[in-house]
Write a structure and sequence with these properties.
The complex is a heterodimer of chains A (about 220) and B (about 80). In chain A, about 25% of the residues lie in helices and about 25% in strands. Chain A has about 220 residues and is of the alpha/beta class. Classes of the chains: A alpha/beta (about 220), B alpha+beta (about 80). Chain A: One of its GO terms (molecular function) is glutaminase activity.
């Protein structure tokens, strides 16, 4: 069975939800611990949402230097699928696995809502099960989700098809309406919305989180 | 013991929502014509002698951890 590691940092909030989503998708969830550099032989890694290390210094800045991230960075560079959700996206940016950075929302408020997105790239490890251009709804909840990058970085992301999700109705001032991006190879994806909250009809208004895990299963089956 | 100050500021072209909120609050309090940008100040106590090499090490630390140079710029100086 495909084994998906979910990292818990001090201050992670959505690690349990991410693990549950992995199981609901029919995959095995493996807990990983920030202070250990072991990835326990997993096939993929999820960096969950929350407030790792209390968001001290900058969101994700301290988590990026935790022992587990040394292993995650090596594995990601070797091609292992890695998904960063919300705080996990911030950690990926701080790790330089993805370009750019998040600043406080332009409206200065914490945003918590069902957010419409357009899937812009379906050639990644986490989005290949979506139809190109699909419009989906995923929970968004953050105070610092305003994606920014230098103009030449934004141009590079646009030109190389690495903008994976765009907001339909920009909720936070993100440059180019960017909600999620990938690395060059497409195995590392980060996004601010929370697909792990859109997997169970009892509590979610859409099940648009499930294709993330179906995509992963498909890409690992091909490997 | 030497003390080194590292100032970290959002880059001029990057929106500073915190600074904007403070600017708005000042105006409401009647402090007119003041535009604020908000950053961070780190005071670093350095054990032993502060050599050029040590200062260079602190610059490297600032670039590695204290500032994210995608969105922030930093300045390192010795506290007189």
């Amino acid at each position: 069975m495909i084994r998906v590691g979910v990292v818990t940092f001090p201050g992670s909030l959505d690690d349990e939800d991410a693990a549950r989503a992995v199981r609901l998708a029919g995959l095995e969830a493996v807990p990983l611990w920030h202070a250990s550099d072991s990835l326990a032989g997993v096939d993929a890694v999820i960096l969950p949402g929350g407030f790792s290390y209390g968001d001290y210094l900058r969101c994700g800045a301290i988590a990026r230097f935790s022992p587990v991230m040394d292993s995650v960075i090596d594995a990601a560079n070797a091609g292992m699928p890695v998904l960063g959700i919300c705080n996990g996206f911030q950690v990926l940016c701080e790790s330089h696995l993805l370009p750019g950075a998040m600043i406080r929302n332009a409206g200065r408020t914490f945003v918590c809502k069902d957010q419409s997105l357009r899937v812009e790239a379906t050639d990644t490890a986490w989005t290949n099960a979506f139809a190109p251009g699909a419009e989906i709804s995923i929970v968004l909840k953050n105070g610092e989700g305003n994606y920014q990058a230098a103009p030449d970085t934004l141009r590079m992301l646009e030109d190389t098809g690495r903008i994976v999700f765009r907001y339909l109705g920009n909720p936070n001032g993100s440059a180019n309406d960017i909600a999620g991006i990938s690395n060059e190879r497409g195995n590392v994806v980060g996004l601010m919305p929370h697909p792990e909250h859109n997997v169970d009809p009892l509590v979610a208004s859409s099940l648009d989180g499930l294709p993330f895990f179906a995509s992963l299963a498909a890409v690992l089956a091909r490997a | 013991m030497a003390r080194v100050i590292v100032d970290v500021m959002p880059k001029p072209e990057i929106l500073d929502p915190q600074g904007k909120a403070v600017t708005g609050a000042l105006a409401r309090l009647g402090f007119d014509g003041l535009t604020v940008r908000q950053g961070k100040r780190f005071e670093i106590e350095v054990d032993g002698e502060l050599t050029d090499e040590r200062l260079e090490q602190i610059r490297h630390a600032a670039e590695t951890l204290l500032a994210n140079t995608v969105i922030e710029e930093f300045d390192v100086r010795v506290d007189a």
